[in-house]
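W.,

You were right to be curious about this one. When I first looked at the sequence I had no strong expectations either way, so I just let the prediction run and decided to look at it fresh. Below is the sequence, 136 residues in total, followed by the output.
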Amino acid sequence: MDEKQQPHDSGRQRLDKWLFFARMVKSRSLAQSYIQSGKVRVNDTPVRQPSQMVKVGDRLDISFERMDRILVVKAAGERRGPYEEASLLYDDKTPPRPPGERLTLLEQAVREPGSGRPTKKERRALDRFMTDTDEE
């Protein structure tokens, strides 16, 4: 039996690899940084080692920037495949967001006042304000 296939046969896999194969993160190094920063919990236990082994039935609590995910491991991955293949690796137990928390497309597109560079209109108003205060 090949040593590289043994983790798949026993149903256990490194946590960073599993997150990558399940398409929760874009790279293994990003998965490792998430784990080391304490954003991943396995069975309600904080994990800081990317080499932590996960098995079928383990519950993962992952704190992403935009939302938290609760996943139950269904299988170990063999490769990073398309979404359809990756979604077979877990059951998503994340509760749905309340309707009030969702941003509409308009809210997503509108810039918060004061964030980022000023618009042309805001810059002109600021210029007028600055020239008015200089004359007094």
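Here's what jumped out at me. Residues 14 and 51 are 5 Å apart (CA to CA). And, maybe more interesting for your project: The chain has a mean pLDDT of 83.

Coffee later to discuss?

I.
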